[in-house]
Amino acid sequence: MNNHILKLENIHKYYFENKNKLHILNNLNLEIKSGEFISILGKSGSGKTTLLNILGLLDAVNSGALYYDGININELNEQEKNITRNKYLGFVFQFHYLLPEFTALENVTLPCFVQNKNLKNINSIKKRASELLEILELKDRLNHKPSMLSGGEKQRVAVARALINNPKVLLADEPTGNLDEETSEHINSLFKKINTEFNQTIIVVTHSSELANVSQKRYHLKKGALVLK
Ligand SMILES: Nc1ncnc2c1ncn2[C@@H]1O[C@H](COP(=O)(O)OP(=O)(O)OP(=O)(O)O)[C@@H](O)[C@H]1O
Ligand SMILES: [Mg+2]
């Protein structure tokens, strides 16, 4: 057996615009081991979000294979894909998408309720959420609503929310794209901490060379394929 948590083989993805075929991912290959932290850089329009949506099982490929722990995603039905998504993946986006009427702690616990409607273990869920918020240096902000949090604090709550279901892989699309330099640096160091202290596998798409520099492997998405830098 191989020890890759994620493997992409000869991925092709294209869109049709009028009669033009836009070949966005062109024979793309990638292997990621558990505990790796990789970054993907590339100019605007190079296909980074397209790739992340494919990794997140939010979009399908035109050809090629995607494996999580050796499971071929092409062979799963929609329900099995949802189960795989919940078990394997946590998402962080450029915008935090926190719900304004809930506190930081409540926002972090929400994915647990979406996933299983069993409310019996609410105390252990809350405990895990407050531990995550503490790791993300938000111990004193548990009961603040998003409007009472800074941009960087909101994004850190979003990271905690992405981690609540213990995903095997954390996927982040421009997590610091909307933040100033100093706030970004704090987020960068927290991604590094989550990776090194908790062995969290992370794939981050970014324009920021500072964020890429805290990852272990830097790829550039060029002409539809990944080049290691
Ligand atoms: N649903 C779609 N239909 C047609 N074209 C699309 C679709 N989604 C994306 N594209 C095109 O595919 C290309 C890659 O888009 P993508 O969003 O993956 O780029 P990106 O690298 O994430 O860019 P950015 O850095 O600006 O976020 C772009 O040219 C975009 O216009
Ligand atoms: Mg994008």
TrEMBL record:
Could you give one GO CC term from the UniProt record? membrane protein complex
Family annotation (Gene3D superfamilies):
P-loop containing nucleotide triphosphate hydrolases
Domain of life of the source: Bacteria
Q: Does the keyword Transport apply?
A: yes
Family matches, as InterPro entries: AAA+_ATPase (IPR003593), ABC_transporter-like_ATP-bd (IPR003439), ABC_transporter-like_CS (IPR017871), MacB-like_ATP-bd (IPR017911), P-loop_NTPase (IPR027417)
Which GO molecular function entries does the Swiss-Prot or TrEMBL record give?
Answer: ATP binding; ATP hydrolysis activity; transmembrane transporter activity
Occurrences of domain ABC transporter (ranges): 6-228
Keywords attached to this Swiss-Prot or TrEMBL record, sorted alphabetically, are:
ATP-binding, Lipoprotein, Nucleotide-binding, Transport
Q: Which family does it belong to?
A: Belongs to the ABC transporter superfamily.
Q: What is this protein called?
A: Lipoprotein-releasing system ATP-binding protein
Give the organism, scientific name.
Hypnocyclicus thermotrophus
